[in-house]
# Entry
Amino acid sequence: MMDETPSAVASRPVIVSLCPSARTARAMKGTDLRGLGDYRQALRTAMLVIRGPYAPALHRLSPKGSACIQIAMANLTEFSLADAIAILSRTPATLNALLRGLPSVWVRGNEGKDTWNAFDILGHLIVAERTDWMPRVRIILENGEARPFDPFDRFAQLKESQDKSLEQLLDDFARLRRENLAALQALNLRHEDLTRRGRHPALGVVTLSELLATWAAHDFTHVHQLSRVMAHQYRDAVGPWSAYLGVLQCTGHSAT
# Structure
């Protein structure tokens, strides 16, 4: 963003939020700064929002917090197939580097009854590679909304992976992801293809771009989950430092 012209930066929407952390931020207020001439003017206008009529509300919500000014990226919510593939192609190596050869405590430990461990999470990703992402891409391209997606079994790995080693699962995931990305790229999808629609059995109508974006975000979800589950194994060992370790306080999504 720093390589952009001042006028380009000033055209971004400026968001005023509360600091010092996302956990203390309870509200966000925004103002549209399009048309302003330069970056400094954009910041001055944002400061008027902080000091102006919104100031009392901001202070009540976070008396000890300060206001942050964030300049949003222009394409934050736009889907890019190339960008998604850049993430999807790296996940197998990320998991391999994190998990291969680790002691059992890290890959078999979970967060309690009916929760997943690293072994389960990796198995879940494998089931999704086989039965979810590319099969649903093909359903959209071949049938559109006429044929709903087949339901996805989120717990199939508990049976399918039980006789395999972690190393086998890592190899299987890498191979399946490689094959799926090759198949995806062979489709030579055009921009208009990304707007084609399918039907999810629970969510209703979805687009191809939403499915592909979810594929990438699903990877992030479970990389996040892995770090949380593994950190949980030291929840007592860290002693009082647990108060400072966000990964031990995380309740962002369910245990599975």
Summary: The two ends are 37 Å apart (CA to CA). Confidence is low (pLDDT under 50) at residues 1-40, 45-75.
